[in-house]
Amino acid sequence: MLYLASQSPRRRELLRQLGIDVDVIDVDVIEQREPGEPAVDYVSRVAREKAGAGLLQVAAVPRALVIGADTEVVLDDEVFGKPADAADAIRMLQRLSGRAHRVISVVWAVNAGREEHAVSESTVEFARLSDAEIATYVATGEPFGKAGAYAIQGLAASFVRRLDGSYSGVMGLPLHETATLLRHFGAA
Fold first, then answer.
1. 79 in Cβ contact with 73 (< 8 Å)
2. Long-range contacts of 161-165 (CB under 8 A, 24+ apart)
3. Domains recognised in the chain with CATH numbers
4. 23 is annotated as an active-site residue
5. Digit-coded pLDDT (tens) for 113-136
6. Is residue 21 scored above 90 in pLDDT?
7. Which one of 41, 70, 85, 131 is the catalytic residue?
8. Could you tell me the pTM of the whole model?
C-alpha cells in the first residue's frame, strides 16, 4: 500500500500523472531550519521527518510504503517557506523579482525495512515585477501555502523568464526522481 505524507493537492495531482493513486496521511512536522544547516540538508530532513511520521501511522499495514516530500525556495542562502501573511508574500516576491533563485525538492520513500531519497534542484529566474503586479498577484490568494509565495503552475507562470531543472520539482514533487524511487521499491 502506498501512502503520501502530505496534504498537498499538487503532490496528489502529480502522482496521478504517474498513474499512481495514494492514500493521504496527515502529518504534523515542525519546519524550522537549524542554525548553520545547509538548505538542502534542511529540505531533506523535513521530507524525511514527514515520511517517518507517516510510516509510524501505518506501521501495522503490511508492505506499507510512505512518500514524504518537501520543496523550498532558496535565495542568497535564505529559505523562503510559505508566507505568513500578505506582507510576507509581498516581501518574498519583491526579493525574487528580477533574480534567479534555487528550488530544492527532496523526496523520501520509506517502509519498515528500508529508506531512500532523491534530490531535485532547479533554478528559476523571475522577470522584474512591479509593485502593482506583486500586489495584484498576492490579492488573488494564490501565494498562500506555497514556498516562496508563488505557484509556477498558476498565475505566477507569467513571472518565470527561465527555468533550468524540473518543472514538477518546482511544483512540489519531482516526477522523474519520484518514479525512480518507486521503481526501486517495486511500487511503480
1. yes
2. 161/125, 161/126, 161/127, 162/100, 162/123, 162/124, 162/125, 163/122, 163/123, 163/124, 163/125, 164/122, 164/123, 165/103, 165/120, 165/121, 165/122, 165/123, 165/124
3. 2-184 (3.90.950.10)
4. no
5. 999 999 999 999 999 999 999 999
6. no
7. 70
8. 0.95
